Amino acid sequence: MTQNLQSTTTLHNGVRMPWFGIGVFKVEEGLELVDAIKAAIKHGYRSIDTAAIYANETSVGQAIQEALQENNLSREELFVTSKVWNADLGYEETRAAYEASLNKLGLDYLDLYLIHWPVQGKYKEAWRALESLYKEGRIKAIGVSNFQIHHLEDLMKDAEIKPMVNQVEFHPQLTQVELLQFCQKHSIQLEAWSPLMQGQLLDHPVLQDIASKYGKSVAQVILRWDVQQGVVTIPKSTKPHRIIENADIFDFELTRDDMERIQALNANLRVGPDPDNFDF
């Protein structure tokens, strides 16, 4: 059982990644974002996930710098992730995008850098750039986001380095069982974005029933379900009380029956684009 908010999984290259973190998708630059990240770090979060397309890396970087000072932490105690956007998927373009993200974040390195979407014909060159940055010691770990099994198989045919992480939409109505099994087989850590289905699951009667049994919120039950099956999770919130509540999942364990009840809610429903059919 995962013990606390700082508990980590070990990626296949030996880097330790927290099981739990905070995501900042669609949170605009500014004080609200800075305060949210600072609240998360103060409460014990050690993983922050952003992306170039979120257009908020500057505020994320500001929050990190202030939080390190205020909490007497070293940079090495945090795990910071960003992602290269579709328009920058090329060898030189991806390297330049990485430098731009570092500059906005005010950091010397990233713990994890991901290819945001599997744009056909472009992600292999981008991956070559990530491999080169990794070999140069500029990134601690490299991975992908929104890759399905066939994307991963295609990438790994030519890759020198296997992805360490695959971050995908993952929640009780999109359980992606085959993808999870594939990633586990190949030692690729699966990570869940939109684990709460953007709030659409909070009124689900089955989840409410399970939550009442444990004296927990529906959100806490879903996030516990993630980490209990070996999936890293990064729920988004800007409200300090919600940030604290989301992380309060390490003092209970779901039974096998309840895990299966949640698993049975799968309907292959997405709130985000289909990785095999997206246009941006």
Automatic annotation (TrEMBL):
Record-linked SUPFAM superfamilies: NAD(P)-linked oxidoreductase (SSF51430)
Keyword field: Oxidoreductase
Catalytic residues in the record: Y54
Domain NADP-dependent oxidoreductase span(s) in chain numbering: 33-266
Entries under PROSITE patterns matching the protein: ALDOKETO_REDUCTASE_1, ALDOKETO_REDUCTASE_2, ALDOKETO_REDUCTASE_3
One Pfam family linked to the record: Aldo_ket_red
Site feature Lowers pKa of active site Tyr, where: K83
InterPro entries: AKR, AKR5G, Aldo/ket_reductase_CS, NAD(P)_OxRdtase_dom_sf, NADP_OxRdtase_dom
GO molecular function terms listed in the Swiss-Prot or TrEMBL record: oxidoreductase activity
CDD domains xref list: AKR_AKR5G1-3 (cd19157)
Keyword Oxidoreductase included in the entry's annotation: yes
Residue numbers binding substrate: H116
Family named by the database record: Belongs to the aldo/keto reductase family.
Protein name per its UniProtKB record: Aldo/keto reductase
Species assigned in the record: Paenibacillus kribbensis
Organism placement in taxonomy: Bacteria, Bacillati, Bacillota, Bacilli, Bacillales
